[in-house]
Structures are given as structure tokens and as C-alpha cells.
């Protein structure tokens, strides 16, 4: 429309006159207003414009323009606070996912976002120990219990929001554990993979946020990072298991010694580079076993 066209022209004039910081401030204010008024597609468009302006102003200048990035993250968090009816914007969030193949080498992951950005030193991995077979609900219960039992024991700070990958059943499983731990007030949601719907405890129907929603984008990034981290850990364990199978068939090398060898040397390649003396450092490895191991993995005994 005419008003929108005029605004675009004015923005272009400000840009050409070198008033980019002023333009950036105005666009930030408009994005915040669009987010508050739930005009999510417009807010997303303005967010992209802010990103472009930040890169242009910066070069090395991107560092000077970092307040724009912080403003965008605050807007995402404010929108999430409003949508979920939280007491405060969720500055600290933890997200969980489960990865397994036929119930084998099942793992759980937890990632942390602080002010909308990954905080990798807070990430945690969980090897599923108490759940047998394929039972994702029981696995998520195990991971949530282990995480927050440890957090309560260590008197660590609780997150402002907990996000569970998958859907309503997984949310219900996590919620029961949190309630049992005395954390009934902890905000928790889940995001379903198929339609990207958000499930909230006590609400029958899911929240269906528009594609341009800043809050939805933040939850998706959090979920995707938890999924990536879980898959990475699962792949590592699976590769170790595959490598360990090379040691099968050596008389005197059972599951415990096999795992001990892989843990000590990191991989079969590490064992190949080992000497007999190196192998003796693993409990239970004798001279006879060391020779058999080196022969089996293709190393030349030294």
C-alpha cells in the first residue's frame, strides 16, 4: 500500500544518507511492536532486515551492532513469555531428546540455551541405563529424573523453561517425574515433530503458532540442537560398538575387557597403534592376550 511504500522509501533514504544506526533503532522498535501485537510474519521480516543491517554496519562493525542481536533475542523471549503465560521471559532453557535404534545403545541429550543462544558447557549426555527395549516414555522419564535429581542435590539453578522433543505423551511422562520431584511449578512444554505444534500441561489442544512466529523459531532451534546432540552421541556409541566387534572371537576377551580396551584406547585404530606394554595397562590383559589382540586387529606385535 501507499503507506508501506512511503516507509520503504524513507528507510532507503536514511540508509543512503549514512544514518544506518538510526534506521536500525527504528526497525528494532517496529519489530518489537509487531511481536507484541502478534503480527509474526511482519516481525520475522523485520528481524531479517535487522540482521542484514547489523552485518552491513559492522564488518568489524558487527560487534558494535551486537545490541541489535540481543534485542532480537529479547523479542523472541518476550513473545514466548506471552504465549506460554510465564511469570518471566525464559532466559535459561533446557531441552531434551532421546535417540535409539531398536532400543540398542539408547541415549538421551540435554542442551541449554541462555538468552536465546546455545550454552554448550551446560550440555549433558545420558546413556540409558534403566530402560530395556523400545520405550521412549520410560526413557524420557529416566533422563528427566536423573537430570533434576542431580540438579536438586547440587542445589543448582532451575531453568526458566523445559522443552521436550516429541509430543503430548512425552510431555505427560516428563511432567509426572517433575511433579514427583517437587518441581510441579517448573514450566515445561513439548513440540511435536509432525506439525510443529506446542503442547502445554493442562491444555487439551496444542498451540498452533504461525510459521513466522519468533517464539516458534526459538523453540525449533532448541529442539533441533537437542536432536543433533542426541544423534551425535548415539552415533559415537554405535561406532564404538561396531569397532568392538572386531575383538569378538578372541578367547579370553569378554564384553568387559572389550569395553575396557575401547575406552582406554578410544578406538580400534588406537589399539592398532599400541604396543604390548600399552595393552598391559588395561586390567586383565596378559602377554598372551596382548599378542592375540594385536594379531586380530591387524597390528604388528612389537
Can you describe this structure?
This protein is of the alpha/beta class. 54% of the residues lie in helices and 13% in strands. The chain has eleven helices and seven strands. It has helices at 2-16, 20-36, 40-58, 66-84, 136-154, 168-180, 214-244, 255-265, 268-272, 276-279, 287-297; strands spanning 92-101, 104-114, 117-118, 124-127, 161-165, 188-191, 198-199. Strands 1, 2, 3, 4, 5, 6 and 7 form a seven-stranded mixed β-sheet that branches. Strand 2 (104-114) and strand 3 (117-118) form a beta hairpin. Helix 2 (20-36) runs parallel beside helix 4 (66-84), helix 3 packs antiparallel against helix 4 and helix 4 (66-84) packs across helix 7. The termini are far apart. The model is unreliable at 59-69 (pLDDT under 50).
Give the SSE layout.
Elements lengths: L1 H15 L3 H17 L3 H19 L7 H19 L7 E10 L2 E11 L2 E2 L5 E4 L8 H19 L6 E5 L2 H13 L7 E4 L6 E2 L14 H31 L10 H11 L2 H5 L3 H4 L7 H11 L5
Parallel strand pairs: 1-5, 5-6
Antiparallel strand pairs: 1-2, 2-3, 2-4, 6-7
Helix pairs in contact: 2-3, 2-4, 3-4, 4-7, 5-6
Amino acid at each position: 500500500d501507499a503507506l508501506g511504500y512511503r516507509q520503504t522509501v524513507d528507510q532507503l533514504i536514511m540508509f543512503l544518507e549514512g544514518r544506518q544506526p538510526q534506521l536500525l533503532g527504528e526497525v528494532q522498535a517496529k519489530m518489537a511492536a509487531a511481536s507484541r501485537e502478534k503480527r509474526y510474519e511482519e516481525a520475522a521480516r523485520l528481524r531479517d532486515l535487522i540482521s542484514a543491517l547489523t552485518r552491513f554496519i559492522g564488518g568489524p562493525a558487527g560487534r558494535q551492532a551486537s545490541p541489535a542481536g540481543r534485542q532480537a533475542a529479547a523479542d523472541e523471549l518476550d513473545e514466548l513469555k506471552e504465549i506460554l503465560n510465564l511469570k518471566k521471559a525464559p532466559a535459561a532453557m533446557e531441552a531434551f531428546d532421546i535417540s535409539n535404534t531398536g532400543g540398542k545403545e539408547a541415549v538421551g541429550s540435554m542442551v541449554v540455551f541462555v538468552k536465546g543462544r546455545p550454552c554448550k558447557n551446560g550440555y549433558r549426555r545420558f546413556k540409558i541405563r534403566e530402560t530395556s527395549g523400545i520405550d521412549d516414555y520410560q526413557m524420557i522419564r529416566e533422563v528427566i529424573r536423573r537430570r533434576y535429581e542431580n540438579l536438586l542435590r547440587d542445589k543448582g539453578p532451575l531453568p526458566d523453561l523445559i522443552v521436550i522433543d516429541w509430543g503430548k505423551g512425552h510431555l505427560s511422562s516428563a511432567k509426572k517425574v517433575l511433579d514427583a520431584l517437587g518441581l510441579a511449578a517448573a514450566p515445561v512444554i513439548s513440540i511435536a515433530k509432525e506439525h510443529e505444534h506446542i503442547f502445554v500441561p493442562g491444555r487439551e489442544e496444542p498451540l498452533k503458532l504461525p510459521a513466522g512466529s519468533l517464539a516458534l523459531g526459538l523453540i525449533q532451534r532448541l529442539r533441533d540442537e537437542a536432536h543433533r546432540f542426541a544423534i551425535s552421541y548415539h552415533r559415537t556409541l554405535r561406532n564404538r560398538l561396531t569397532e568392538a566387534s572386531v575383538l569378538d572371537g578372541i578367547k579370553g576377551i569378554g564384553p568387559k575387557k572389550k569395553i575396557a580396551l575401547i575406552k582406554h584406547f578410544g578406538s580400534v585404530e588406537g589399539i592398532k597403534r599400541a604396543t604390548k606394554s600399552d595393552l598391559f595397562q588395561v586390567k586383565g590383559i596378559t602377554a598372551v592376550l596382548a599378542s592375540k589382540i594385536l594379531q586380530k586387529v591387524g597390528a604388528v606385535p612389537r
